[in-house]
Every structure is written in C-alpha cells, then in structure tokens.
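Researcher: Let's walk through a ligand-bound prediction step by step. First, I give you the protein sequence. Second, the SMILES string for pyridoxal-5'-phosphate. Third, you return the three-dimensional complex as structure tokens. Ready?
Model: Ready.
Researcher: Here are steps one and two:
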Amino acid sequence: MKKSTLCVHAGHEPEPVTGAVMPPVFFTSTYVQQAPGEHQGYDYSRAGNPSRTVLEKALAELEGGTHGFCFSSGMGAVDAVLKTLSTGDHVVAMNDLYGGTYRLFRQSYEKLGISFSFIGCSSEAEIESAIQPGTKLMWIETPTNPTLTVVDIALCASICKRHGITLVVDNTFASPMLQSPLALGANIVMHSMTKYLGGHSDLIMGGLVTSDAALAEALFFNQKSTGATPGPMDCYLALRGIKTLHLRMKAHVENAQQIALFLQAHPKVSRVFYPGLPEHPGHGIASRQMSGFGGMLSFELSTNTEENARTFLLGTKLFVLAESLGGVESLVSHPASMTHASIPREIRLRNGVSDGLIRLSVGIEDAQDLIQDLETALSAC
Ligand SMILES: *Cc1c(COP(=O)(O)O)cnc(C)c1O
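Model: Step three, the predicted complex:
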C-alpha cells in the first residue's frame, strides 16, 4: 500500500464490538484478569494500552518496520535507545544534533561511562576513523536542525553493517512521508512525534520503529521499565494527526520551496539553507533519499547579527516566534538564543549556527500570505 493510504488506515480496523470506525480511547490503567496471570494481552497501561497499540502499529507501518514504540516525548524515545548500551560502550554521533539529544548524551550518559565522538558524517573516511573497538551505536539526524545538513543514510548503514554497529536515524525533520531510513539500511528510526506526525502543536510524544526482533525486545523492556509512556488521549491525538500527514507534508514542502526561492532572491538575505535548492551542499543526497525536501529552512540576513535577526523576529505576524516545528501553523525561531542556547557558542558556530541565523517552520497557510509576512519583516531590517 502507498503511504497516503497507510496514513489514513494504518494501525486499526473498525472496532469489532460496536463497529466504531475510529478506535476508542481506552482510559484505563488496569485490565481484568480471568485467572492470575491470564489476560487478553494487557495487564497494566504502562506496559501496554490499546490506544497506544493502535498508534504504535500505525507508526511501524508508516516507517516500513515491524515494531513501533511510543513515548511521552521524543527525548523519552532517545533515552530508551541509549539505555540499550552499557558502561564502556562508544557512540559515533553527528556534531549537529538536536540540542536535547546532545545534552542527554553529554550530561546524562557520559557520566555513566558511555563515550561519544561527534563528527560531521560527511565522508566514509571520516566515519571510519571515528569508529572504535567499543562502538555500538551510530546516531544521525537528517536533515539536521537548523542548518538542514543532509547525511547519506545508505552510506552510514553500509559502514555500520560492516562493523556490527546499530544505526539510529532521527527522522523527525523528514517525517515518514519524505524519508524511510529502515529501507536505506538503518536499524532504528526515531521521531519526535511532537512535530510533523502529531502535526498540530498540541502534544509532546516520541516514537521508535525497528524491524529487528532483538532490538525491539530491548526497546520494549526500556519503555515499560522507565515508564516514559504516553497517555491514551495523546495517542488518539497523534493517530488523528497521522491521518492527514500526507496532505500536510505536501503543503509544507510546496510552501517551503516557494519561500526558499523568495528568500534566495531577496537583497536583504545573504544565505538560505534548504535542501531543495540546487546550491545546497546536501541537495544531491537529499534528491536520492528523500521524496520531498521538507518544510524547514533557515537563513541569514545580509547584516548577519543577532540584533538584526531580532528586528526580523519581532516583525513577523503570521510566523509566530516559538520553539518547536512541524505544526500546521508557521513558526519562526532564533536557534542561538532558543533551541541551541545550551550548546557552547564555539561549538554552535563551528556547526554553522551563527548568532544571526533565523529558522522557519513553514506551515500550511497560503504561500503568498506567508511571503508577504516575511517581506514586511525584512523591510524593517
Ligand atoms: C523536538 C526534537 C526532538 C525531541 O523531541 P521532544 O518531543 O521535544 O522530546 C528530537 N529530535 C529532533 C530533531 C527534534 O526536532
């Protein structure tokens, strides 16, 4: 089945007892047992809830995997993967990671004796030279936040396979509609479902998908043991969001493409980071591994200072100043002082996140209205 059909139907069929077309929301913490230890597959909602099962199945189907797991946040999902490691293990990670992922690696897991190498992931030689005898995991994100760096998933997967390393891809920015990491050889796909999958900025949730039975068992163990599991209402909201994911992503991509061209041609803009532009260094790889270039972009003003960026940020009306991304509404943010504030300045600058960089999460409003809003804000800069 095509992904558009999966968005609408994955995870459930009409409910057998009443015929309800939409799956019921199971507000229950516990389940009656026929005899001690004898039940219908559910004993306690931290370990499993039918509303969560439906969503986990839908997510797994969308990513082309066999096992899906949902968490009460994207970070809960990241944590469940890291907890499969032991003291002494080594992780190769991208140097341009989501700030919260970087913080969890450096501040929570390094002190437990897990070591990390942060690299650009731009060539086979670079990746190979970062691998150590104790390397168990490679963690990449593509496209990255906020410079939209693109990493070759198939290349990473072939290197990891050779060394027996588990490859995890944070697929949040692309969503399952635009990129399928498992099909390219990754072992685990991670999502902040808070973003495009939920799609309406009304929930916090994370997800993992794998087709590896042993990994699935370990992830399920960590999910129920740590207990960062989402409630049934959030699961319902996320499922409802997924039903229009294909339509929303199409609109996000079309709008972002138009806005990227508008910004690129604007005299007050010096640089636009969008993988859909042929000038973008990741354009070639993105064309191969993505079916659309996404709804996220960032740019620098000709006078690339924090002060000038501030003038711009206070000048938009439709683009609301806020963290997060992937909702139907357009958002604008300033990574240096917002999402990336916890990353030391010199590391941030090395990763291309300048003091004046502006990030847009392009929503699904009318493109001309969005461009008009940007034009107004640019004219004040
Ligand atoms: C938001 C985000 C996360 C973290 O997810 P939460 O749902 O906020 O916990 C991880 N990776 C990426 C790329 C993100 O954008």
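Researcher: And what stands out?
Model: The chain has a mean pLDDT of 96. The chain has two domains: 3-242, 245-379.
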